[in-house]
Amino acid sequence: MRILKALFRHPSGRIGATVIAIYLVIAVLGALGLTPHNPLKPFPLDRLKAPGGTYWMGTDLLGRDTASRLMLGIGQSFIVAFASVAGATVAGTIIGLLSAWWGSLWDGILMRIMDVLLAFPAILLALLIIAIVGPGPMTSITAIAIVYTPIFARVVRGPSLSLKRREFVDAARTFGSSQRYILSRHLLLNLVAPLTVQVTLALAWALLTEAGLSFLGLGTQPPAPSLGLMLSESKNLMQHAPWLMFFPGLTIMLGILGFNLTGDALRDILDPRTQGRAS
Amino acid sequence: MSYVVQRLLTFPLILFGVALIVFFSIRLIPGDAITAMLGTEAGLLTPDQRAALAHYFGIDQPVGAQFLSWLSGLLHGDMGISVTFGKPVLSVILEHFPLTLELALMSMVIALIVGVPFGVLAATRNERPSDLAVRILAMLGQSTPNFVLGLLIIYVLSVYFGAVPAMGVFTPITVDPLANLMQLLFPAITLGFAFAASVTRISRSAMLDILSDDYIRTARSKGASPASVIWFHALPNALIPVVTLSGVEFGYLLGGAVIVEQVFALPGIGRLVLNAISQRDYALVQGTVLFIAFNFLVVNLIVDLAYVALDPRIRLGGR
């Protein structure tokens, strides 16, 4: 709650958090079916209608309402982004914590495995995973989660190594606290700040990667709307129906901007050393 | 152990790990090389024909032996045969790589030319309107996906200038440098835009740190001109994080080229890997992924070593 208040006091945090909140509301409305029109049903008589009274953001080649499809697409992108970042956060935190806690040989093995995963450019590793499992939202979630796990493992391992040597951890050991208790109460709780920043920034990246994979036709599959897919479909129609490109493009950009602004603001709030430097 | 030695020792280990992942992930795909080549017609093969083909592809061996033979092939530059091209994978990759390399290099040059001066400008005018404007621009740049920007560029060029960028063709720089430049300029701007934003942000942040250092105050008190303090005293040190960022980003540019090459229909290595996936040409997928990851690793190693040369504190284990 304290962080949320600080976030709304921070100029870019206020903008970022507001954008995310608006997107969340739109995504929920879309998921509840509260869209202006049916996002999946084609209306051949209304194909390629320019933005106007009935269709605020125009229609596509099949006469489907762009605004309604965007509402559903935002939800789809958010589900993939949130689920993949949640997976990466849990896996990366466990790996980073255990690596730091066990040290020596295990640390070497786990971190080298993370280094190997980091050796692939993110989109390429995702492509490799999609080549194995086939495209779809679940594959996108798994691929993005695997891509970002090593980043979280590194973010957690560094501070855990120094926390491990602190007096309060020694004291907890002396008092007979279990390994699990020390890891979850003493180490993990002290990692909330760097993790919060990383989660927000990773959400921006996950949104971008999901849209990129869908744009390549390897993410969400039609007829389900996804922001990247809508943009990709607009490519051949941009001269006749530019709205099909503008609205999904702007929606993706604003969503990423929202998370980036929030991430930067959180970094300023939680790590005063970077105040005003990151943005 | 010094950082350089440690870095050099772990390099082959990570490379081996990458090869291991690439090899076994491809083996996880349902179906084998014969099905990939012949599709449904593979069902018409007699057991003898299938055995002969299995022997040709080396898949009659145990997986461990296959891996070792693949690895020894790699060391001799043999990555197998591409089913779609009917040629050795390495030669297909080498045909497509120059475009991607040139695209990534051009993007990097654009990003540095734009990003460093903007970063310096923002730092020297900290908290003033021009600093704010640069920061807003950089944030927008970082949040604009390259496929959105690429489509926007194509739209503006085609609708407002009647000039559709040449798609699907590529003139090597050795044949016609001007045509080559014109073909790659807009894709390079697209690919380098977000990178320029990162360079701006990191140079601004590094300059802000350095401008408050003691040696800058000393230079100023000795009467050095403001321009000389910024460009000759502060900038060389502020460039150290920019070098690191450039190295890491260069690897990402090679990967990010997948999308930009798709937007501009450029026949580079990114588009090659994408087509290889859709055509189920697994030898080619395996080869290209490994090739890009290898380049990414080599670039990162060079950057790390350059970083050590630029910042002697790392050599002493200060990292």
Task: Give a brief rundown of this model.
Chain A is mainly α and 279 residues long. Helices cover 71% and strands 0% of the residues of chain A.
Helix and strand arrangement:
The complex is a heterodimer of chains A (279) and B (319).
Chain A: H1 2-9, H2 11-31, H3 66-102, H4 104-118, H5 122-133, H6 137-164, H7 167-174, H8 179-187, H9 192-215, H10 227-234, H11 243-270
Helix pairs in contact in A: 1-2, 2-3, 2-11, 3-4, 3-6, 3-9, 3-11, 4-6, 5-6, 6-9, 7-8, 9-10, 9-11, 10-11
Chain B: H1 3-28, H2 33-38, H3 47-57, H4 63-75, E1 81-82, E2 87-88, H5 89-124, H6 129-143, H7 146-160, H8 177-211, H9 214-221, H10 226-263, H11 269-278, H12 282-310
Antiparallel strand pairs in B: 1-2
Helix pairs in contact in B: 1-12, 5-6, 5-8, 5-10, 5-12, 6-8, 7-8, 7-10, 8-10, 9-10, 10-11, 10-12, 11-12
Give a written overview of the molecule.
The complex is a heterodimer of chains A (279) and B (319). By secondary structure, chain A is mainly α. Chain A has helices at residues 2-9, 11-31, 66-102, 104-118, 122-133, 137-164, 167-174, 179-187, 192-215, 227-234, 243-270. Chain B is mainly alpha-helical and 319 residues long. Chain B is globular, with a radius of gyration of 24 Å. The mean pLDDT of chain B is 86. The chains are: A mainly alpha (279), B mainly alpha (319).
Distance between the termini of chain A: 24 Å
Low-confidence spans of chain B: pLDDT under 50, at least 5 residues?
none
**What is the rounded distance between the termini of chain B?**
13 Å
Oligomer: heterodimer
Report the helical percentage of chain B: over 70%
The poorly predicted ranges of chain A are: none
Could you give a short account of the major beta sheet of chain A? none
Instruction: Give the ordered list of helices and strands of chain A.
Output: HHHHHHHHHHH
Radius of gyration of chain B, in Å, reads 24 Å
- SS strand fraction of chain A: under 5%
Largest interchain contact? A-B, 47 and 54 residues
The coarse overall form of chain A would be: elongated
Beta-strand proportion of chain B: under 5%
Strand order of the largest sheet of chain B: 1-2
Number of strands of chain B: 2
Number of helices of chain B: 12
Radius of gyration from the alpha-carbon trace of chain A, in angstroms = 22 Å
Helical residues, percent of chain A: over 70%
**Counted beta strands of chain A:** 0
